[in-house]
Write a structure and sequence with these properties.
Blueprint: H1 16-22, E1 42-46, E2 52-55, E3 59-60, E4 68-69, E5 77-82, E6 89-94, E7 100-105, E8 115-118, E9 123-127
Antiparallel strand pairs: 1-2, 1-9, 3-4, 4-8, 5-6, 6-7, 7-8
């Protein structure tokens, strides 16, 4: 992880699990998020600061156990290299509050080929 990522300054009240994921770079258990089954049209917001991160038309079923998207909204996420747990991954953060959202992998569907594998607890869904 890059040294320039600071503790997120999330302004919204967080549950203990949201705090663990967003501020301490935790991961929720696979299959535990109700957002895995969310199929309605709408927008996914950062649970820490309410920044709009993903549109529902970019969500897909990856089989990973976490809500997955093939593209975030332009300029709404940032990435850093994560070398924890004996592997190298690309960590995804909210561009506004720097909260940890999850990781991005190069095994997603077209058109991007990316899988933004997000912790559901780090997101808030608002149906349209």
């Amino acid at each position: 992880m890059s040294d320039d990522i600071q503790t997120p300054s999330c302004s919204l009240p967080l549950t203990p699990e949201q705090h663990r994921v967003l501020r301490e770079h935790g991961t929720e258990r696979p299959g535990s998020s109700p957002l895995n089954d969310e199929k309605r049209m709408g927008v996914y917001y950062c649970a820490g600061c309410d920044a709009p991160l993903f549109d529902s038309d970019t969500k897909y079923e990856s089989g990973s156990g976490w809500p997955s998207f093939f593209r975030p909204r332009d300029g709404m996420t940032e990435t850093t290299v994560d070398k924890t747990h004996g592997m190298t991954r690309i960590e995804v953060h909210c561009a506004q509050c720097k909260g940890h959202l999850g990781h991005v992998f190069p095994d997603g569907p077209k058109p991007t080929g990316l899988r933004f594998c997000m912790n559901g607890v780090a997101l808030r869904f608002e149906p349209s």
